[in-house]
Amino acid sequence: MSGETKILIGKLLRADNRAFVAGCRTKELVAPALGALCKVRLEEGLEIYGLIGNIIINDDSLVRQLVSGISIPTEYTEDNRHNRNLPVEISVLCVGFGQGGKIFHRLPPRPPLSLDALYLCDDAELVRFTSAGRYGYFRHILRLDDQPVEEILTAHLANARQAHAQHGRADWYTGACQELIVLLRDDYEGLMNVLNALAELE
Amino acid sequence: MDTINRANPHPIGYVVGGGLEANLQVRLTVPPQEVQEGSFVVIDSGGWRFYGLVTDLQLGSTNPRFADEQSEERLPRHLAELLHGQTLFTNLAVMPVLMLERGPEPGAEEYRLWKNQHPEETQPVPVKTVPSHHSPVLLADAADIAQIFGEENNQEIFRIGYTREQGHPVCLNLEKFVKRSSGIFGTTGSGKSFLARMILAGLIHADRASALIFDMHNEYGPDSTSSDTGAEVPGLKGKFGAKIRLAGLGARTSFGKLNADLSLEIAQSDITSEDVLLLSQALNLNETAPIVLSALERDFGQDWLHEFLSMETGTTVEDENGKSVPAPNSVEAWAAVGNVHPKSALALHQRLQRLGKTAYLIADPATRGLEQIIEDLEHGKHVILSFGKSNTELDYLLVTNLITRKIRDHWGNSTENFHAGKGKEPRPLVVVVEEAHKLLNREMASQTIFSTIAREMRKYYVTLLIIDQRPSQIYDEVMSQLGTRISGSLGDEDDINAVLSGLPGRGALRGLLSKLQAKEEALLLGWGVPMPIPIRSRRYDNDFWKELLGAQESPKTIEEGNKVLGFDSNDTD
Q1: How many domains, chain B?
Q2: Which of these, A197, B196, B231, B332, could form a disulfide with A154 (CB 3.0-4.6 Å)?
Q3: How close B69 gets to chain A, by Cα (Å)?
Q4: Which long-range contacts (CB under 8 A, 24 or more apart) does B201-204 make?
């Protein structure tokens, strides 16, 4: 499915059914962004969709030494960007999967495997994934308790809104806001956090 | 159900809770301003249609903080609107009143089977169950209202007004209305007397019962002028002509330009001691009066009043021994013989002088007005009795009670004859009483004939139509017997409670009644209407008469009628 999506952003480091982490070289960290929809294609036509929930840049002893030095020569910084052996970690939250041409907003039957390729989805695919069902994948995001839910949601909604404005349903964004309000109406703090973040999109 | 065939198929909300005791709770899905307290709504659920009345609107929120925060100031407009749509809401309290079985979806096989089992048209019945959760709620359309209140036929199904929001016609079944005693209430200026005029016009036009109207303020028969607008208000006589008989109390009662059809003079012999005791308060009788009265009746029979009033007081003659004694024709002389305390007799004599001075109470009336009235009423005519100048409380109490008692006795005899197979069925009669609290207050109710009539309901084919502004002053036993109650705006809490006495759902209706507009709005309730409903009353104007009488409209006034016939009405005096 959607074999056109070609922007490779990383390779799988570790995974479980709910989330997985991919790694990439520091200098490749251009395309991925918080809230972006990406996917891993497994054999047998199974595609696992996820939203980027966090991007982590780890340190090592060399970086610590450099940082604690008085000044860092430019070539050291360049070297660190190009030749560093430690990958940037991209945490991806599983939000659904595709199988047999259909999109499901459930957790995938099994996680992707190490070294599987992680691709960034284009607008058409973003529209296709978000149009399926009735915003069911929101529950995977709202379930998070150790990550900034409203930020991930806002980043995702900003992307999806733009994609829908060009290729999809004009009322998608309104429906999404409405769904969030319905899901969060018993959680005043949580809902107001989300709405305040969404207000910045205006 | 056939919601798609409705004039307005859009639901205004859906059922979220409640029950029969506590009202149904309906989540409103339209702005609250589109629905008002008193709105008539229908709820379709499982082959039944429920009919109810909105008795309250309540603002709610899923969390009070959503209501407290003015989030529209913090959030972009569309987000704020979406948020308010989900977290802030209005709930309607709907009092379910009636339900109607409608069976499965028309056209389906199940419907055909159901229709075979229920070939007759189903009728609305008092509500015994509740609609399911999430059943759609719609504002009633004209067809729903006609289903419940009947479709106007310019006869006994009489259009009395319109629903307040959508203006759908609401009808009153006059045949049912006169089957039990009824009441029209409202403060001064609430349009009570216009409403009464209109209903009387409808009753007379439908001709299902004869009406005897005690017109204390001379406003029903002749044309008059509205105290508010100064516009001319057509009277019943001008519109119905010969169907109406104008009776004047005493020989010289004036009806403005109209002449009385008959004068009502009452023979003194018609007055009983009970009639006088009824006036104890008005005549300021003292405690010994009943003893003196019973002695008078014992000695003189039915002529007691005439005899007593002809007696002199304080006159003396000398007896054989030259001693001054009461003259033979004096009260004192009668008291001495009759073994009555002279002072008590004198006191009563003095107080009864007021009766002797009335213009209508005479020893030997030239006309038999009372018999004439009874005859007219029996023959399907309607009588408006004007009190003319004799319009004190005393006159009103005495005359209304006396006449009604005579009529009730007459109808009682006719009914008994009819049941014995000796005569035709008596014509139903409605006695219209204004200022009814004077006759039906707690002290008087047990003594006047009116409370008896109210209690008897239709046993003797006589019912009351009470028109009053202080229903709380009317004895509760009488109030609770009233079948149909039509109430305009009432200010006093006691009056509101009195109108609702003996009715189910009082709590919910109290709010409705207390918030009626001061003018032109009324609440219909009680036995005579299928369910309570607030209405904007029909206007009593020329259009009303055109619609009621149509092409057969009689000449507007007697004067015009006479002109048509070539008479000059000024010559008829």
Answers
A1: 3
A2: A197
A3: 11
A4: B201/B236, B201/B239, B201/B240, B201/B540, B201/B544, B201/B545, B201/B548, B202/B158, B202/B160, B202/B172, B202/B174, B202/B548, B203/B174, B203/B177, B203/B178, B203/B430, B204/B236, B204/B240, B204/B243, B204/B244, B204/B382
